[in-house]
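Limitations
The structure tokens in this dataset are predictions for the assembled complex, not deposited experimental models. Users should treat interface geometry with appropriate caution, especially where small molecules or nucleic acid strands are included. An illustrative entry is reproduced here so readers can see what is and is not provided.
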Amino acid sequence: MLLAILSDIHANRAALEAVLAAAGPVDGIRVLGDIVGYGPDPDAVVELLANRGATGVRGNHDLAALDGEGVDWFNPDARAAIEWTRHTIGETTRSWLAALPERLVDGPFTLVHGSPRDPTWEYIVDAGIAGENLVHLATRHCLFGHTHIPLAFLRHEDGMRELPAASSPLTLDERTAFVNPGSVGQPRDGIRAASWLLLDTAGPTVTWRRTPYDIAATQAAMRSAGLPPRLIARLDRGA
Ligand code: ZN
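Predicted assembly:
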């Protein structure tokens, strides 16, 4: 089975459309949270995902868009964007987001936005934090997002080791792997193109993909919505 693993879409419709086109006729779509927030098209993004039968987990921005939870932790730009999102999304979007669990088990994979220890909020930024999360993982592997950085952490005898997305395709074995697809809608690794993952459950094998999209279209929609200029500019840098 071929699955498209998408994280941190952040209401970027142009990026999601480009990724779905590049993915082609996959057997399923799994999302790792932060479907909305920052970007200009929350309703359209949720509609696209719902129409494709996507399943997955919620992120901290999705939660904040529903009821303002955790918004005190947001920086001023993220906060302004989430307030805009909260007042913009329709009832269909709201109920689709509200139905997402914080954690989902799919075969040998646990899907979370942040980490197995703290599914909504914790950032797995290094091998040490990934290692601390091993005891909280009930399946062999973990798919996570939240940092917007495509990479993997692989278990070795002396601990977890970071593996760059460039080592793709990567066939997973009995060693536990924490795998991050990167961000569809707001990449932060210095590359502007949308970052996502193809998962062939038969290996299982993961392949990181980069897909260019119409950044100017997203930026124009953000300007019309009155979203913060810094959030608009960062899409150009992929950072
Ligand atoms: Zn995010």
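Some entries come with short summary sentences. For this one: The helical segments are 13-23, 42-51, 60-67, 76-88, 91-98, 127-132, 215-225, 229-237.
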